[in-house]
Each structure stands twice: as C-alpha cells, then as structure tokens.
Amino acid sequence: LSKQLFNPCAFAYGVPSVDAPTRRSFHVSSQKSSNTYHGTTILCVRKNGKVCMMGDGMVSMGNMTIKPNAVKIQRLFPKGLPAVEENAQKATLVGFAGATADAFTLLERLEGKLDEFDEYPGQLSRSCVELAKGWRTDKYLRRLEASLIVADESKSLEITGNGDVLEMTDGVISIGSGSPYALAAARALMSVEDMSAEEVAQKAMDVASDICVYTNKNFLSYTLDDVGDILA
Predict the structure, then answer these.
(1) Which listed residue (40, 92, 215, 223) is catalytic?
(2) pTM (two decimals)
(3) Rounded mean pLDDT of 56-61?
C-alpha cells in the first residue's frame, strides 16, 4: 500500500495537501451570544440654573423586550436625611447603563463614599474618584460591566470601568447604546435659549428613542437646581 505523506510546504503557499488535517475555524465560536442584555440611554443636561437627568425604561435581551419601564435613575440622599421630596434638592442623581446587578453594586459603593466624605467640600468629585480607583484596581470590581452618570447641584460626572472620571464642559453627558444620538441632539439644542434643561433632555431623548432600537419612550427624570461649582 502506498502511503501519502504530509507536505508542510504546501501550507506555506496557501495550498493544503491532499491529506492535510482539517483546520477548525474559531470565527463562529468567538461571536457573542444573542442572550446578552443591551444598553439603554441616560442623559444629563445642565442648563439655565437646572440640572435634569433622564433615562428610558427598556430592558432587552437579544431581539426581545423584557421590560419596558425599568428604573435606571436613582436618588441618593445624604446620610441621616429621609428620602422625601423636601430633601430632593440635597440628593445626588445617579443613572446607570449596563448589567443591573453590577450597577447596583457600584451604587452601593458610591453611596458609601458619599457618606464617608460628607463633611468635605466637593464631596462628589472626591467620592467618584475613590470609586473609580477601587473599580479599576480591585480584582472583583474590575469585572463589573456598567457605566454611571452622577450629578448633584454643582457637578455632573461620568464614571467608567477604565478608571475615568469625566466632567463635560458643555453641560451634557450621556451613556448607553443611544448616547451618541441623545448627546448630539442635546448639544444642538443647548444653543436654544428659550429651552430649559428638562425640555432639552426630553427632545434629545425623543430623538435617541426614534433611532436606537434599545431605547423606548418610557422616560423617567429628576431635576435639581444648579448652584454652580461650590469650589469656584
């Protein structure tokens, strides 16, 4: 019986030999599963003495809508103050995009940092920096997949898992799958003097929900008075 030999030179020129072993392709296995939760749209606008944070309510998995009215914006009240409307101006607004469990883990960490630095001026910036440091360096926290927007009466910040704490200079911040559309629309509307922060946020979110399939029109919003930078 004749024996066929494997010719290694054939692969060098892109021509497999007759008895070349079948190579397995990893392109299919590397694709993400359809059972992954997609993003949302959270927008924060600071304009004309007001700061408004608004988010949609859609939760989707693959090509299915799981829930249309999820709450993706929370108010964190200072330590010792009851969570009532009379104390709403002193609350910190937090909006999140990403895995819900991961986001609430970060919310608990942030609330702890806010309580820890409650007596210091500019507590929001310091608390966010400390959260970002832990998020980046801790071997468990770094696995969390979420993004946060945090705002109080003086600052609006974005926190990412890369250790970034970003403050936008134009008063507009957005995260989530529809954030490019909401951000572009809000920036375009910021020059309209007669529009309030709430109106800019509402119109920009309408634009985002019309374009992004993972954003619906069940909006939830909170508004604070903008007192400016307390350290200025």
Answers:
(1) 40
(2) 0.79
(3) 88
